[in-house]
Design brief:
Chain B: This is Acyclic terpene utilisation N-terminal domain-containing protein. The complex is a heterodimer of chains A (114) and B (459). Chain A is of the alpha+beta class. Chain A contains four helices and seven strands, in the order ββββααββαβα. Chain B is built from twelve helices and 18 strands. Classes of the chains: A alpha+beta (114), B alpha+beta (459).
């Protein structure tokens, strides 16, 4: 099947949270059928690279197939965390939308359904 | 005892919408089932800011919106037998109890029983220097900082004890957020302190509700992608918990917002790390076996939450002060705004450096890259996209003294005359910085105390 490249935002949603200098981001496809495809394409290495400019040191992905959800936990991504950071967004709550900017290759029908 | 118990949430943080609890209580009263309300008002840093307030005024240091939050619901909750629990005591739970007592007397219910849980403040009782910091904080050097507050995250047991002693309002300082929901469930269903599966059900209930609207459409709605009705009036959440282990999330009637599979998933994973081991003082929650199912309009049922033994140690978060944040902003707009914004940022950073005003400085180009960027501006420095119509330049500096931070912030102001052509709209401010560090301490080092008195007796 022919695939098209889209930002994750077209097919999935996410929320970011913080604990100290560690951030987490959930990622859920709108269509559960896309779960295996995201599992294959949204790797720990790709997500870590998205936050390399902020000094992120490690990314762990926890898979929750029963809920069709992923949880990414990223160490040292918050430039000191809410209390240490000079960033306007010390909590890093906007970072879920950096993740949603990552591109994935999906069937065109997946976008239409979202 | 009923087989179904309702838990409503009235606030997800200090600063939440103060009119949110009203429809929640209205719904609980209408349904007529056994129920409790809880308020979560403490972020990591809130208690340090409250401690600073308490230093200034010994009767301050609790949730400043407490009276405003409780006034419209207190009489209705008391009449309907709906206890109210909250960590709105912050750094001064006893003063918060006196505030609730004054309110109750004013509203004509002087026999309202108010319970206070203390013991979370360990700043005078535990020598933090002798403890190992929590792993996520191990690298921070805090040697030049002054301790402002140190509070243990206490669990549900003392809150449940206050309820058992007849408290209709339970005022606490630092508790773990889910414990505020676990306590009334423990009390109602008689769960034992080692009934791990039921406690995990309570933890899931608390975790889903503790951020208020975040499970009913708040920080969820994304126009055109995840739309919700009436986002100006999002209904706060209500959970239905049954004796046989059922858990269902819904929301206040006749409100905006939405509860669906998507909003529940987002909140279930919020601030969660290993899904097999979410640590609370009461239980270790495991959501790896959770499945969700729609159960009607704005109703989602959860099943499969598992519990494991609680951690041996409690988390203590200490807050320190010792430096200042200076921030200043200016705007540029129109043709060549990108070049003018970049030059402005570089000049501001140069000024701070040559005057020796900060230990760390950062510039943001709001409209190009700010919240996603790094201290060194990696994203805006490499930006090669189109020029936006306007850009706001922000300088942020960490300084050792208030005066240095103020001088750094005023460098943005000075750009009104010294800046690039068309520089405008300067704003600047200075705020004290609070740093936090977490430790793990044995439970025996954190004894708690529960006092329950009628409103007429809290003086």
């Amino acid at each position: 099947m022919e695939l098209i490249e889209v930002p994750l935002h077209a097919v999935a949603h996410s929320r970011a949270g913080d604990k100290g200098n560690r951030g987490n981001m959930s990622l859920m496809p709108y269509d559960p059928a896309l779960y295996p495809l995201l599992a294959e394409q949204v790797t720990e290495a790709r997500v870590l690279a998205l936050f390399a400019h902020r000094g992120a040191t490690r990314c762990m992905r926890y898979d929750l197939p029963l809920m069709h959800a992923f949880n990414f936990v990223i160490d040292d991504v918050l430039e000191g965390g809410v209390n240490g950071s000079l960033n306007l967004d010390g909590h890093g709550k906007s970072l879920s939308f950096r993740l949603l900017g990552l591109t994935v290759r999906v069937p065109p029908s997946a976008v239409a359904r979202a | 005892m009923s087989d179904l118990f309702l838990v409503g949430n009235g606030a997800g943080f200090s600063g939440d919408r103060v009119d949110a609890p009203i429809p929640v209580v209205r719904t609980l009263v209408k349904r007529g089932l056994p129920a409790a309300m809880f308020f979560e008002c403490l972020a990591e840093r809130t208690i340090a800011l409250a401690q600073i307030e308490k230093r200034r005024d010994p009767e301050a240091g609790y949730e400043p919106m407490l009276e405003r939050l409780l006034e419209p619901i207190l009489v209705n909750c008391a009449r309907a037998g709906i206890p109210i629990l909250g960590n709105f005591g912050a750094a001064n739970p006893v003063a918060a109890a006196r505030c609730v007592a004054r309110l109750a007397r004013r509203l004509g219910i002087p026999d309202l029983r108010i319970g206070v849980v203390t013991g979370d403040d360990v700043s005078g009782s535990i020598d933090l220097d002798s403890l190992m910091p929590h792993e996520a904080d191990a690298g921070l050097d805090m040697s030049s900082w002054a301790l402002v507050s140190a509070n243990a995250y206490i669990g549900a047991a003392p809150l449940a004890e206050a309820l058992a002693r007849g408290a209709q309002v339970v005022v606490a300082g630092r508790t773990s957020d889910p414990s505020l929901a676990i306590a009334p469930l423990m009390h109602h269903f008689g769960w034992a302190e080692n009934d791990w599966n039921n406690l995990a059900l309570g933890a899931a209930c608390g975790h889903l509700l503790e951020c208020g609207s975040q499970v009913t459409g708040g920080v969820f709605w994304d126009p055109g992608f995840k739309d919700i009705p009436d986002p100006a009036n999002i209904g706060f959440p209500i959970a239905e918990v049954s004796r046989d282990g059922g858990l269902l999330v819904t929301k206040a009637e006749d409100t905006g917002g939405a509860v669906d599979l998507r909003s529940v998933k987002e909140q279930l994973l919020y601030e969660l790390h290993d899904p097999a081991a979410y640590l609370t003082p009461d239980v270790t929650m495991d959501i790896t076996g959770v499945t969700l199912a729609p159960a009607g309009a704005d109703r989602v049922a959860l099943s499969g939450v598992r519990g494991h033994a609680r951690p041996d140690r409690l988390k203590v978060t200490a807050c320190y002060e010792g430096s200042w944040l200076g921030e200043g902003e200016v705007s540029v707009a129109g043709p060549n705004s990108l070049a003018r914004a970049r030059a402005t940022a570089d000049v501001l950073l140069q000024r701070v450096k040559q005057r020796g005003l900060g230990r760390r400085a950062r510039a943001d180009l709001i409209g190009i890259s700010a919240v996603h960027d790094s201290d060194d501006g990696a994203l805006w420095r490499s930006y090669d996209g189109p020029e936006p119509p306007e850009i706001r330049i922000r300088l942020a500096v960490e300084s050792a003294s208030r005066d240095d931070a103020d001088q750094a912030a005023r460098e943005a102001l000075a750009m009104l005359c010294c800046g690039t052509a068309g520089t405008s709209g300067a704003r600047w401010r200075v705020t004290p910085r609070i740093l936090t560090r977490s430790f793990l301490v044995p439970r025996a080092m954190v004894p708690t105390e529960v006092r329950v008195l009628e409103a007429r007796s809290w003086n």
